[in-house]
Amino acid sequence: MKIVHVISSIDPSQGGPQSSCVRLAAAQSAFGNDVHIVSYGGADVRQRAFQSAHDVPLFSHIQWHLLDDPGRIEQLLCVDGAKALREVLQGASFVHIHGVWEPVLRSAARIARQKQIPYCIQPHGMLDAWSMKQKQLKKRVALFLGYRKMLDQADFLVTLNADEARLLEPLHLKVPNLTVPNGIFLEEFTDLPQKGYFRERLSLREGTRIILFLSRLHTKKGLDILGTAFSLIAASHPDADLVVAGPDGGARESFVAQIDQLNLSDRVHLTGPIYGRDKLRALVDAGCFCLPSRQEGFSIAITEALACGLPSVISDACHFPEVGTANAGIVVRLDPVDVAHALAQVLDDPTMASTMGKNGQRLVRENYTWPRIAEVLIQGYNSVGRGKRTMLPGQNTLVAAADH
């Protein structure tokens, strides 16, 4: 089976969709499929992307078709992208489109229809209510100018959880959805680095405990909420520091200003983006993971934190209630007081934190692995037009394939 994944950029600084696209493609190749990725990615992007995914199993099996970083005209008209897509889609069995609001993705859908190749679209949370309110007018115009057609004529949408599927309802799309989460490769978390390297890199004082935020520094990630929450527990927990790791997505400057105003600059450490082994070093040295996000599809960062045995404090807008039901962490409202209370609970009870860490590892390892997810999606590809329904192994999530 020739599977072609299309994504606008493979730059890991863009967040979870890039990471999940690469890992899904690698996992699908393990089943003997001919798997391709079409994307923009100049020399600098390629270096970052390939370095961050160096340890992904079967990474070398992926067939790459990378275009130079697009200029303004290419971004709008997708001339080079369309040419590459016509070539790569020759003989394709299925096209998996990651994202929504990019001309190269619309071109991929159009060319797939022209060649009568079935395709699905994975919005990665870009169509839920919160996301649709951002640049709302621009997105409404885009839907009118062809993006709704792109969505409606897909064979199915891939949603990451039941909440995302429900949040699509206001759009009244005419396409079924298949709900499949993100995951991990167990191999990436089998040989974790020894503790201490990341702590030494930050020159933390002896005995300091780390609250780790690992994501893009973007408004939707709730950094301002985390900053206020940390200020509420900083005095009562003098041995705890906040580490913020990730590329700037537009919120860094305002967050730094907030921390300065709260007089916490000596307790908050911004590392910039970290990938690969360095990311694992940060996770194993942390005592707690926190992501009070305003919107998530299915956070790769949360899944990786759980896989490393970190108790996690996350918002209900992360749409990962299993963290709470499995007692792998605490799910809270988007409120700084609630976040602060949850962080204090984890810091004040080492026994509970340890139990949560073990529960989180078990939750991820038993339910959220890329080979299992890849298998379900391949079943979805093969079930187009057959009206089949399947169950994700080890989950209670119903997965519905397209039924045209």
TrEMBL record:
<dbReference type="InterPro" id="IPR001296">
    <property type="entry name" value="Glyco_trans_1"/>
</dbReference>
<comment type="similarity">
    <text>Belongs to the glycosyltransferase group 1 family. Glycosyltransferase 4 subfamily.</text>
</comment>
<dbReference type="InterPro" id="IPR028098">
    <property type="entry name" value="Glyco_trans_4-like_N"/>
</dbReference>
<feature type="domain" description="Glycosyltransferase subfamily 4-like N-terminal">
    <location>
        <begin position="15"/>
        <end position="183"/>
    </location>
</feature>
<keyword id="KW-0808">Transferase</keyword>
<dbReference type="Pfam" id="PF00534">
    <property type="entry name" value="Glycos_transf_1"/>
</dbReference>
<dbReference type="GO" id="GO:0016757">
    <property type="term" value="F:glycosyltransferase activity"/>
</dbReference>
<protein>
    <submittedName>
        <fullName>Glycosyl transferase</fullName>
    </submittedName>
</protein>
<keyword id="KW-0328">Glycosyltransferase</keyword>
<feature type="domain" description="Glycosyl transferase family 1">
    <location>
        <begin position="199"/>
        <end position="362"/>
    </location>
</feature>
<dbReference type="Pfam" id="PF13579">
    <property type="entry name" value="Glyco_trans_4_4"/>
</dbReference>
